[in-house]
Predict the structure.
Amino acid sequence: MAAVETAMSMSDRSKARRGAFFGRRKGHALRPRQAELFDALLPRLAIQLAKPAPPDLKLLFPNPVDSIRLEIGFGGGEHMIAQAEQHPCTGFIGVEPFVNGMAKALAAINLKNLSNIRLHFDDAVFLLEWLPSASLAGVDLIYPDPWPKRRHWKRRFIQDESVAAIARILRPGGELRFATDVPDYAAWTLKHLIRSPDFAWTAERAHDWRHAWSDFSATRYEAKARREGRVPCYLIFRRTDDGRWTAG
């Protein structure tokens, strides 16, 4: 577990300096096999932000990929893993600062022998700064923490600054896909994205936000939300082509 303790220590210092969009980082103790994967597999899959991004992000993956997608805050990795299986020619970068969620994802990646996933075990803000302009085909934000108390709204991931950061790394026509079961967070996200000149909301009718996109992979969290009567909302925003940022 030396790798995880070192990474958490460095990240927590950065979190204290800059603030963060996530809360606690560790829950129950890891099983021995999970701890082993942290020390053996995570270093192989982790993106090294201390080095400059490669001229072509596709070089992050051992096998050729056609495009690259990012999932911010993947939880236990269910959606990301399913997407990677469905789209073997797409490269996926997953961000998760929570130890137990990362442990679950590592176990699934190891079990399924997936080679089209790379990971970032820290705050997404640092990765967004590192990624080249117009380098991604899509960004997924699936059931992010809604921070329901008004005094915590500043910790919601969707802010004007993060919207601008995502716009920079998305190529023209790329999509930001967002899912939540919290009506207030859906409204918050719509407000921030609609006022951004970099994005266009793709919905044309109510069906478009009431039903998930075609390749959406449902999670256990979503199943629990539905059982408890919470209704998911699915939003897709397309990156406009204003020429402000170009690849590279």
